[in-house]
Design goal:
heterodimer, A: alpha/beta, 7-stranded mixed sheet, 19 helices, B: 370 residues, 8-stranded mixed sheet
């Protein structure tokens, strides 16, 4: 399906006859089941939101009952691919110029007719009310802009890791993503639209506009247009980025001849904005005036933000609004100002999905009966555009955004996510050992690895579904999509927050799911598991024949050997595929002699002589020799001691039921 | 403040405050000169006294604010009149030339100066006029000057005043204010830029913050927007303009009050916000622009001040500085803003000698140290 948006009226009044062709079905996805529409129409961009369901395949495990009899050749369990329906949120951002075309497309593809209303917010909601009602045949239900904004902000902060970032101009990575604090409240949201609103948010439903200022984005735009005869906001920012404010502003050194030492005011500090333009006989360049204006306004907003933050004793300060939205120049000046006025104590925080907050909030207001806030939602990397580079040097096309559609998709997660209560400080816990956003060499290495491995994954994917239709075509589409994602991440490593090996794996998984490959490795896993499980009884028996102390040591060695397998080295996997038991013994033999690099075995042994542990928590892979031959015997020993055991899998299912069954057996036998 | 009569410095007595835009000069004219003194008085000293007291304008830009003159003042055991003179900082070279022509350096007097220019022009004073400056901190001088003038009163009248009924334009009027037990107070000095000080006692104060959006920004922006060139012109234009044609008000967005957040319809939502629109840019006058600039700068100073007062827990604010000279519009706006947004908790106070306190403080230092 293609959609054409033609003959938009260009700025300046004359038609620019700018037509674009959009693959609309790749933008407004899953419209068949779409419901709960919301729209946020700003000064230049429209954000459409809807809730939909997606049907996709999942791998399910069924254990056979082995209590009766076991023969050598029967598989111990069976994997079946089943259909599952999950909820997905869609958010699409596009220029107001395309609103009519987009609404037409949505109307044409809408199947669900239960939907009667569309929630609307933003300054343009009123202006486009009639158009929306006419096109979509939905009743427009207006929602307060500020409360939508706050609701949306809470939602992204809660659900999207690395949503917030500090901006560091000219650094290797412009964005430094922040770990989400387990408790997002309280915080300050400074929304810089035409004016400034300063809102203190204390809980999900409790927020207060504690102040504001009339000097905001509208002042920059309006005053800037008067001073420079430049009409567009983006052009004004461009002018500003080229200007020298010192020719217009009166600096401390212009008054003092240097710094004002006793107050610690440096010579370059602005003493009086536009202080040098108080003369009739001098011309000033547009660039310099725009720059001076930008500094004046950014500093002023930063100062007020700091005064409010101090008065209300808040340290988390997020900035949003059209003045900020993706503009490196304003993010930089605001960051500078906050840093100056708080002496570095408060950092200016920005949000990856800042532009979507209003739409998300309006959507949430209309979707209350689905209780979206009772679930955890995850950003779907396959369906989301990610953050674009904002540096004009890095991405010259960025400024010319016309015709680009930006998307955010969020999947409802199986379970509500919570912070692990055992963590000392969840906000400072970083699960990844390497930040590929910061480390360019490591980034290139890993991107290369994933690219290299792609062909193999495609083969496995095809092999995993021999009986399903269009497997090859889907696998090819997956390959294209993931390769494209990797390329994007090479240029914009910050697209989905900090880039890590984990996020590269997640992106791959999302892309695989997108094309209905829930687990390309399921066949291999099953073979490996089957082999390991066959050896399991023997392994347990041999452990039982050992003395208590010997057994404890053997169990720990088994755990470590399991990790040796997890290296995934090809040589080892070859050994595995022939003889799991042999491979495992081989790995144990390859272990270093004690003392190990980190070696607390003696303390562990002493502890085991004491009373049983109340509870043990395992973080394990969901499949393979390492868990079956390394972890299971260890767990079995703990269970026999009377310790309760829980486990966390990196990637859900497959063996969960099996483990429980085996553990139960161990306890009773 | 009592000045000891032990060792008097020799005449002439000056205090100088060299700011970013204006130089403020206070001159003490002794009127109790004995015949003996008169005879001993050197020609250059006489000439300076005559020149300053017999003129109200000096050169093309220097002016004496005659209406501010403090008469029959006793300072350091001498009786005299205190004169208040100002000229633009960019005319400093002409001033130095005059000092040289009048052989100022032959008087071996110490010239006490404060403000940034005391540092910036230190060398010029020496090389061009053979004068050595005693440089003083501008905030120290400002506070000393304020406390002194407040204590001696303005020719029998109150130096300090406020606006009664600030929220009612018809009933709003200037009233004298007795600044007894002045501490703590917030002192807001609006010159080219703005400094905000929290004053806890005569010699305990701190600079809370400052902003670069001050008098210099008002005049600088007005010059660019309207082509005017003086503060007087800019104010004159502002007085006949209408800022609501330039600014976007709350009611322009919400059709009336924004009740949810307690914002009245008349409040400015976006300064110069209407100027985003081409048609509106073409429909406004220079006067409207001057008025909007004045309102923007003034209200911003008001809101920063109010936040500082809240953070410092201070209820009285004294506004000084030359931005307020002949600028009743801004003073009333500040009085209104303090009262309205604090629900009557904050009081805005003003002083008649607006921008001269730093110079007065410098003069007091001269008399104190010798």
């Amino acid at each position: 399906t293609k959609m054409a948006a033609c003959s938009r009226i260009g700025r300046g009044g004359h038609s620019m006859d700018k037509s674009i062709t959009l693959p609309a079905d790749e933008i407004f996805r899953n419209l068949e089941n779409a419901k709960r529409f919301a729209i946020d129409i700003g000064g230049s961009l429209t954000k459409l939101a809807y809730y939909s369901t997606v049907q996709h395949k999942v791998a399910k495990v069924r254990s056979f009952d082995h209590s009766v009899k076991e023969t050598e050749d029967d598989p111990l369990y069976e994997i079946s691919v089943q259909e599952e329906i999950t909820a997905r949120l869609h958010f699409i951002k596009f220029e107001n110029a395309y609103i009519e075309t987009c609404l037409d497309f949505v109307k044409d593809h809408l199947v669900n007719t239960d939907t009667k209303v569309i929630k609307a917010t933003g300054g343009g909601a009123y202006k486009f009310k009639d158009l929306i009602e006419k096109k979509l045949k939905l009743k427009v239900d207006k929602e307060d802009e500020m409360s939508c904004l706050i609701k949306g902000c809470n939602f992204v902060l809660k659900n999207i890791p690395h949503e917030a970032f500090v901006y560091v101009r000219h650094a290797d990575s412009e964005f430094r993503f922040q770990n989400t604090h387990p408790d997002i409240f309280p915080y300050l949201l400074i929304n810089i639209g035409s004016g400034v609103s300063i809102v203190k948010v204390e809980s999900e439903d409790q927020f207060e506009r504690i102040g504001g200022s009339s000097i905001g984005g509208g002042t920059f735009w309006g005053l800037g247009a008067l001073l420079t005869k430049t009409k567009r906001f983006d052009e004004l920012l461009q002018l500003a980025s080229r200007g020298q404010h010192a020719s217009v502003d009166m600096l401390v050194k212009d008054i003092y001849g240097g710094a004002y030492g006793t107050l610690g005011l440096t010579g370059d500090l602005i003493a009086s904005s536009f202080g040098k333009s108080a003369t009739a006989d001098k011309e000033f360049s547009k660039e310099d005036m725009a720059k001076s204006l930008l500094h004046m306004i950014s500093n002023d907003i930063g100062q007020l933000a700091c005064l409010y933050a101090k008065l209300h004793n808040l340290t988390r300060v997020y900035f949003g609004g059209f003045f900020i939205r993706g503009h490196p120049v304003t993010m930089h000046t605001i960051t500078y100002s906050i840093n100056f006025f708080t002496k570095g104590e408060v950092q200016a925080l920005f949000l990856r999905h800042e532009g979507y907050l209003g739409a998300i909030g309006a959507f949430l207001k209309g979707a209350e009966e689905d209780n979206p806030n009772q679930y955890s939602w995850g950003e779907n990397y396959a369906g989301s555009s990610g953050l674009m580079s904002v540096s004009p040097e890095l991405n010259p096309m960025q400024r010319a955004r016309s015709g680009t559609f930006d998307m955010l998709e969020m999947d409802r997660l199986e379970r509500q996510l919570v912070n692990l209560p055992l963590l000392q400080d969840p906000s400072s816990y970083i699960p990844d050992t390497m930040d590929l956003t910061e480390d360019a060499v490591a980034r290139e290495y890993w991107l290369f690895c994933f690219e290299e491995a792609l062909e193999g994954v495609v083969k496995r994917a095809i092999a995993s579904q021999p009986d399903l239709p269009q497997t090859r075509e889907r696998a090819e589409k997956f390959s294209q999509k993931y390769r494209h994602k990797l390329q994007t991440l090479r240029h914009q490593p910050f697209a989905y927050g900090s880039l890590t090996v984990r996020s590269l794996l997640d992106t791959r998984e999302h892309c695989l799911n997108e094309f209905n490959f829930p687990d390309p490795y399921s066949k291999i896993k099953q073979r490996e598991n089957d082999m390991a499980l066959k050896y399991f009884q023997k392994a347990v028996k041999s452990l039982e024949s050992l003395s208590w102390e010997q057994r404890q040591f053997a169990l720990v060695k088994g755990l470590l050997a399991g990790n040796v397998f997890d290296w995934g080295a090809k040589a080892i996997s070859d050994v595995l595929e022939t003889n799991a038991g042999f491979g495992f013994e081989e790995a144990k033999r390859k272990l270093q002699e004690r003392p190990w690099l980190v070696d607390s075995y003696n303390q562990w042994l002493e502890r085991l002589k004491g009373p049983p542990h109340k509870c043990a928590l395992f973080f394990v892979d969901n499949s393979g020799i390492d868990i079956i031959l390394g972890v299971f015997p260890f767990v079995r020993e703990l269970l026999c001691r009377g310790t309760e055991v829980s486990s966390f899998y990196e990637h859900s299912f497959v063996l969960r039921s099996h483990l429980h069954c085996k553990c139960a057996l161990s306890l009773t036998s | 403040m009592k000045i000891k009569d032990a060792k008097k410095p020799s005449f002439p007595w000056f205090g100088m405050d060299i700011g970013g835009t204006l130089v403020k000069l206070v001159y003490f004219e002794p009127i109790d000169i004995t015949a003996e003194e008169e005879q001993e008085e050197v020609e250059s000293l006489k000439s300076i006294r005559r020149y300053l007291t017999s003129n109200v304008a000096y050169g093309s830009t220097g002016l004496r604010d005659v209406h501010l003159e403090l008469k029959d003042l006793t300072l350091c055991g001498r009786k005299g009149n205190l004169h208040f003179i100002r000229f633009p900082t960019h005319d400093m070279p002409a001033f130095l030339q005059m000092g040289r022509d009048k052989h100022f350096s032959s008087l071996h007097t110490m010239l006490c100066a404060t403000g940034g220019g005391a540092y910036k022009f230190d060398r010029d004073f020496y090389t061009m006029a053979d004068l050595r400056l005693r440089k003083l901190d501008e905030l120290d001088c400002l506070i000393k000057g304020v406390l002194y003038i407040e204590s001696v009163r303005f020719n029998g009248h109150s130096e300090c005043y406020y606006f009664e009924n600030p929220t009612d334009p018809d009933l709003c009027q200037q009233k004298p204010y007795k600044l007894e037990n002045p501490y703590p107070l917030l002192l807001v000095n609006i010159g080219s830029g703005v400094s905000i000080l929290a004053v806890y006692s005569k010699d305990n104060y701190k600079r809370v913050t400052g902003t670069s959006l001050g008098g210099g920004s008002f005049l600088g922006l007005c010059c660019l927007l309207t082509g005017c060139s003086t503060f007087e012109e800019a104010l004159e234009m502002a007085s006949c303009g209408d800022s609501t044609r330039v600014d976007k008000l709350v009611r322009d967005i919400y059709g009336g009050d924004y009740d949810k957040f307690g914002l009245p319809g008349w409040a400015v939502a976006s300064s110069f916000g209407n100027m985003m629109c081409k048609e509106k840019r073409e429909s406004i006058s220079k006067e409207d622009l001057a008025r909007a600039t004045l309102v923007t700068i003034t209200n911003n100073i008001g809101s920063i001040t109010r936040m500082c007062a809240l953070n410092e827990n201070i209820q009285r604010v004294v506004f000084v500085g030359n931005f307020l000279r002949i600028n009743t519009l801004s003073m009333k706006l500040l009085a209104y803003a303090m009262d309205y947004w604090s629900k009557g908790q904050l009081k805005a106070l003003f002083l008649k000698h607006e921008g001269y306190f730093g110079a007065v403080g410098a003069l007091l230092e001269l008399l104190n140290q010798s």
